[in-house]
Amino acid sequence: MAQEVKKPELEFDYSKYGFRDEIEYKYIGKPGLSRQLIEEISHIKGEPDWMREIRLKAYEAFIRMPMPKWGPDLSEVERMFDKIVYYASPTDPNRKARTWDDVPDSIKRTFERLGVPEAERKWLAGLGAQYDSEVVYHRIREDLERKGVIFVDMDTAVREYPDLVKEYFGTVVPYADNKFAALNTAVWSGGSFVYVPAGVEVDFPLQAYFRINLENFGQFERTLIIVEEGAKVHYIEGCTAPIYSSGSLHSAVVEVIAKRGSHVRYTTIQNWAKHIYNLVTKRAVAYRDAFVEWVNGELGCLTGDSYIFKNNDVVPIKDINVGDYVWSLTPDMKIVRSRVVAKKVNPPRPVYRLLLQNGREVKATDNHPFLVLRKAGKLLTLGWMPLRDIREGDYVAIAGRIPDHGKPYTLNFTPERRGNKPVKLPERTTEDLMWLLGFYLGDGYTDDNRIYFAVPEDDPAEPKVRRIFEDVFGIKLQRRGVVLRTGSVEIVDFIRSIGLGGNARTKRVPDWVYTLPESQRKAFIQGYIDADGHVRKGHKNLTITSANRELLEQIKLLAMSVGMNPTKITRHVRKEKLPLGKEEKTYITYFLHFSKEEINAPVHFVKVGKVEYVGEEVTYDIEVEGTANFIANGIFAHNSKVTMKYPGVILKEPGARMELLTVSYAGKGQIQDSGAKAIHLAPYTTSTITSKSISKDGGRASYRGLLKVVKGAHHVKSTVQCDALLLDPHSRTDTYPYIEVEEENVHIGHEATVGKIGSDQLFYLMSRGLSEAEAYTLIVLGFIEPFTKTLPMEYAVELNRLIELEMEGSVG
Question: Rounded to an integer, what distance in angstroms lies between the CA atom of residue 512 and that of residue 523?
Answer without folding.
Answer: 14
